[in-house]
Amino acid sequence: MYNFFIILFSLIAVILAFLDLANKINIDIPPYNYIDNAILIIFTVDYFTRLIISQNKKRFFKENIFDLIAIIPFSSFFRVTRLFRALKLIKLTRLFKLIRLLAFLEKLKKNTRNFLYTNGFIYLIYANLITITAGSFSIYFFEKGVTVKSIGDAFWWSFVTTTTVGYGDISPKTIPDRITAGILMIMGIGLISLLTGTISIYFINKINNNKTLPDYNELPEEAQKEIEDFIQYIKSKYINN
Q: Which residues form the Ion transport domain (predicted)?
């Protein structure tokens, strides 16, 4: 649950930072500033909690530079710079926004890396993206004006076919595109199947990594006696001889 929410908040932060940098939204006004500040508080608590419980704080600091950048309240700095427009410090705001976006992207990448590389899932994603793109251009080239009107329609059909949803609003008429549709369906089935397996393996690995051996003194007396007998047997057979 912790990993899921950190990835989710990182993704939201990346989207907000990108839209703000592209001047699509203003992250300093409601409701975006409420969301941004809430995520900032969560990331700050997360960072300092992990810093406190870490055994090697110097190493933690070096390995989490981007996490630290992500919790710097640049928006407060922006408000200060408005008082010094004569010094043209306001031009630095876009640079700081870009740095923050890169920090969020790195945080998102770090938290999703282990999952994406589990079971080679990332490579199937790449293969599907290539197939979806190729399928989109294929139906757009062969059936433009017949079944699809734009490249957007082509990508929509390719994506829907790959996910095996198949709304039926667009269906290929030519032989090449029907073959392409078959390939997309097969790739989509593989993606969904591997996604299910990857989720299972990912959490199984995390559980196994968190497991610790029980303390010897906490074992039942019968188990302790069996262990001692086994050790004595190994000593007598291999060490003493």
A: 2-203
Peptide bond into 31 cis (omega under 30): yes
Looking at the structure of the chain, the number of domains it has is 3
Residues in the chain: 241
The model's pLDDT over 33-54, given as tens digits with 9 standing for 90+, comes to 888 889 888 888 988 998 898 8
Domain residues for the domain of 235 are: 215-241
Q: How far apart are the C-alpha atoms of 68 and 62, rounded to whole Å?
A: 10
Q: Any idea which of 39-48, 49-58, 92-101, 171-180 has the lowest mean pLDDT?
A: 92-101
Taking CB atoms within 8 Å and a gap of at least 24, the contacts of 102-108 are: 102/66, 103/66, 103/67, 103/69, 103/70, 104/10, 104/13, 104/14, 104/17, 104/70, 105/14, 106/66, 107/10, 107/13, 107/43, 107/66, 107/67, 107/70, 108/7, 108/10, 108/11, 108/13, 108/14
pLDDT for the residue 81: 46
Q: Say what the pTM is.
A: 0.50
Whether 56 and 141 map to the same domain: the answer is: no
Same domain, 8 and 112: yes
The whole-angstrom separation of Cα 159 and Cα 131 is: 10
Under a CB-based contact definition with an 8 Å cutoff, are residues 25 and 19 in contact? yes
Picking from 97, 116, 135, the residue at the C-terminal end of a domain is: 116
* Average pLDDT of the chain to the nearest whole number: 77
145 and 95 in a common domain? no
The count of other CB atoms within 10 Å of the CB of residue 222 is: 8
- DSSP 8-state secondary structure symbol assigned to residue 239: I
